[in-house]
Amino acid sequence: FADWLSGQRTAFRENVQRKQAQTGEEREEDDDENYPDSNSSDDDDEIPYNPKNLPLGWDGKPIPYWLYKLHGLNQSYTCEICGNFTYRGPKAFMRHFAESRHA
After folding, report:
1. Interatomic CA distance for residues 34 and 36, integer angstroms
2. Whole-prediction pTM value?
């Protein structure tokens, strides 16, 4: 077992030294050769599945439904002073009172 493990350790050590000697571009090329599907740009261009018309998060995907309900975004508030403008959620509705549109 020790002989087999020593062979693995030397191979691992050589691989680490080889990677440390590479530049950033060489590492990226090596990773692309070893893992071709990890950085596919086809997934970024697709429109995410959003049947409930949920707002998008920071990553461009719809936020979870439980978070949508937690923040009260399922409730719509209309302000007659602002020309019947609709606000999603109580936080957005309360915040709009400080805006110039409401004044």
Report:
1. 6
2. 0.50
